[in-house]
Amino acid sequence: MARRQLEKVRPTSADQDSADSLVKNLNIAVTNKPDSETWLEEPPKIYYASRTHSQLTQVVKELRNTQYHVRTCILGSREQMCLNKDVQSATSNTARSNLCRQKVSKRTCEYHTGLDRVKNDVVQNNKISDIEDLITYGEKMKACPYYLSRENHSRSDIVFLPYNYLIDSTSGNNQNIDLKNSVIIFDEAHNLESFCNEATSFEITSTDIAQSISEVDTCMKLSKELDYDGTYSVEEFTILKSVLLSLERKIDQTRSPSPQSSITKPGKFIYDIFKATKITFDNSEELLKILEEAIKLIILRMNY
User: By percentage, how much of the chain surpasses pLDDT 90?
Assistant: First the structure.
């Protein structure tokens, strides 16, 4: 079609040679692979993102009604897809994730160990499934739906997932999402701005900090026990407690005059708080590692 259109507008002036060259190059493009051009060996992967899993379920349902037979997977959280009762009973997403990783590393989760039996199941991998289908399949086969969806991710043509797996880098990294050679579709994209605001915002209360300080005290005691084989000693946990106490004092100093009123500060104010509590770019990474170790210790105590 493009070649025919070019033939219609072929000039009759001194530009004839240039037009002939264009036709020649177009002929090469549609009949051969030019040596100078780099071609992608694989078709792009499609990421279809929506705000909620119920919306994704609807899209999966509509895809089933088409004549297309494509490899798909749907990504979800442990909260939605985990079948292990111990992990399900964890009180927060962070605790749930850490407990799951512990069980996986120690091979004490029957659903994860059962994954090897089904991850190459061609029938399951080629089926257009939503989260409910994966859970039903996992319960039947004693295999983890969460890790099964991750296995299917790498070999799927279309991946259904919630917004945060593309917007939140931590969630995306946990799911091994690589957007190279991909097509990204955002369902109801007018919600993206508000979703990005929510994804980069958080709420912390004085109660949260007080509970954190109490848990660090527990970590200091646990780190003295003979069976503790972690990276950090009581000294590091003492430093973490000092930082949290400073943070608690700083927040107390900036409270609003009454419960009915509020204080609004510019964005840079958070850096002033961190500076006052000796949290800097230089030590933040190390503090985060100590926090992660503290979480592991607390979860370990919950299970033993």
Answer: 20
Count, residues in the chain: 304
Q: Which residue has the tokens 């949260």?
A: 208
DSSP string, 5-66: HHHHT---STTHHHHHHHHHHHHHHHHS--TT----SSPPEEEEEESSHHHHHHHHHHHHTS
Convert 50-79 to b/e letters by CB count within 10 Å (16 or more is b): bbebeebbebbeebeeeeeeeebbbbbbbe
Q: Is residue 37 part of a domain?
A: no
Query: What would the pLDDT profile of 102-148 be if each residue is shown by its tens digit?
Result: 899 889 999 999 888 887 664 455 577 888 988 999 999 999 999 98
Same domain, 161 and 49: yes
**Are 12 and 142 in a shared domain?**
no
Q: Which residues span the domain enclosing 214?
A: 206-255+264-303
Domain of 142, CATH number, reads: 3.40.50.300
Pair 58, 13 in one domain: no
Domain count of the chain?
A: 3
Q: What is the pLDDT of residues 136-153, one digit of tens each?
A: 999 999 999 999 888 888
Residues of the chain under the 50 pLDDT cut: 1-3, 5-6, 9-10, 34-39, 122-123
Structure confidence at residue 46 (pLDDT): 93
Q: Is the pTM of this model over 0.85?
A: no
